[in-house]
UniProtKB/TrEMBL annotation:
<dbReference type="InterPro" id="IPR056744">
    <property type="entry name" value="TRM5/TYW2-like_N"/>
</dbReference>
<dbReference type="GO" id="GO:0002939">
    <property type="term" value="P:tRNA N1-guanine methylation"/>
</dbReference>
<dbReference type="InterPro" id="IPR040601">
    <property type="entry name" value="Trm5a/b_N"/>
</dbReference>
<keyword id="KW-0963">Cytoplasm</keyword>
<keyword id="KW-0489">Methyltransferase</keyword>
<feature type="domain" description="SAM-dependent methyltransferase TRM5/TYW2-type">
    <location>
        <begin position="79"/>
        <end position="328"/>
    </location>
</feature>
<dbReference type="GO" id="GO:0008175">
    <property type="term" value="F:tRNA methyltransferase activity"/>
</dbReference>
<dbReference type="InterPro" id="IPR030382">
    <property type="entry name" value="MeTrfase_TRM5/TYW2"/>
</dbReference>
<dbReference type="GO" id="GO:0005737">
    <property type="term" value="C:cytoplasm"/>
</dbReference>
<dbReference type="InterPro" id="IPR056743">
    <property type="entry name" value="TRM5-TYW2-like_MTfase"/>
</dbReference>
<protein>
    <submittedName>
        <fullName>Class I SAM-dependent methyltransferase family protein</fullName>
    </submittedName>
</protein>
<dbReference type="InterPro" id="IPR029063">
    <property type="entry name" value="SAM-dependent_MTases_sf"/>
</dbReference>
<keyword id="KW-0949">S-adenosyl-L-methionine</keyword>
<keyword id="KW-0819">tRNA processing</keyword>
<dbReference type="Pfam" id="PF25133">
    <property type="entry name" value="TYW2_N_2"/>
</dbReference>
<dbReference type="Pfam" id="PF02475">
    <property type="entry name" value="TRM5-TYW2_MTfase"/>
</dbReference>
<keyword id="KW-0808">Transferase</keyword>
Length: 328
């Protein structure tokens, strides 16, 4: 049956799918199809599709109905998936149990359901979990996004699927042969795509387990020869890479400002710093911009290239990013 579809190159398909899903434009009653290098994503309202996308008619097969968690509960079935682990965030025990049961009974390929039991805490950025379904010892999984895959142990490291689109936005800016430095690298969701695009990438993290996974993920994605993974405090490592970096990621939004002097020391004659921050909605970018200028000027000229809200973090608080070019 011919239905309206967004047609994108296959390599751009995952980002397009996520953008269309966020706008609630995907037609779930028909299958997404690959054909001769193109991906065809059925949409419910072609008039609402952004002009950047190409909308065509395509013969997309009807999707067989599958039972999803939302079909089995009478409340909003909110969850995230990291590989074959589902993450929920429910304070009410009965609601958490009902949602976990629905996830297990649904068609989702999930073997473990976890409920957040604490915020991310400590220098190693880990959190406590309540195991609602599956084996609590089996928190290791493999997550895939934008053509890369990441082995991760949720009990020992921090990883958020919510930042996939933002990571892809930054990774697309990387160029072959540039020097990219992630100051708080985790299991490598910035480092691996940088290296995949041909950059020489360095990732540093305090969490020894995260660094082990970063090395494993570099091998898993075939980029180990372009990745250096270092366990330690980036302030102690930076001297080895002074004036080296063309691109620097500072994804530690609660305290990145404490590390700006280190970022400036890493920067070469010209570099882009991706600075993540959490600020009040009344002035989400001002404090970060002031802090960057204080650290970099007058040794560098500072140009704010992008001011971007990544997501809402808490009531009246935003997780934002500044893409900043510094030029000596």
């Amino acid at each position: 049956m011919s239905v309206p579809c967004v047609r994108v190159a296959r390599e751009d398909g995952e980002r397009a799918r996520q953008d269309l899903a966020a706008a609630e434009l995907i037609d779930d009653t028909h299958e997404i199809e690959h054909d001769e290098g193109w991906l065809y994503i059925p949409v419910v309202d072609p008039a609402a599709v952004p002009d950047a996308f190409d909308v065509v008619e395509h013969d997309a097969p009807t999707r067989e109905t599958q039972t999803m968690p939302a079909d089995l509960v009478d409340f909003d079935a909110s969850y995230e998936r990291i590989g074959d682990v589902a993450i929920v965030d429910e304070d009410d025990a009965k609601r958490a149990r009902a949602l976990a049961d629905a996830i297990v009974e649904s068609a989702l390929p999930v073997h473990t359901v976890l409920n957040r039991a604490s915020k991310v805490k400590g220098d190693l950025r880990v959190r406590d979990w309540e195991v609602l379904a599956g084996d609590g010892a089996a928190m290791e999984t493999v997550h895939r996004e934008y053509g890369c895959e990441y082995a991760v142990d949720l009990g020992a490291v921090y990883f958020s699927p919510r930042l996939a689109t933002e990571r892809h936005r930054v990774a697309e800016q990387a160029e072959a042969d540039e020097h990219a430095f992630d100051m708080f690298a985790g299991v490598g969701p910035f480092v691996i795509p940088f290296a995949d695009r041909g950059a020489e990438a360095v990732g540093v993290d305090l969490n020894e387990t995260a660094v082990e996974y970063l090395r494993e993920n570099a091998r898993r994605n075939g980029v180990a020869e372009r990745v250096t993974a270092i366990q330690g405090d980036v302030r102690e490592v930076a001297g080895e890479y002074a004036d080296w970096a063309d691109r620097i990621v500072m994804n530690l939004p609660h305290s990145a400002d404490d590390f700006l002097d280190t970022a400036v020391a890493l920067a070469g004659d010209e570099a882009v710093i991706h600075y993540y921050d959490i600020q009040h909605e009344d002035d989400p970018y001002g404090p970060g911009e002031l802090a960057i200028r204080a650290a970099a000027e007058p040794a560098y000229d500072v140009t704010i290239e992008t001011r971007h809200t990544v997501r809402s973090y808490a009531p009246h608080e935003l997780n934002v990013v500044l893409d900043v070019r510094v030029t000596r």
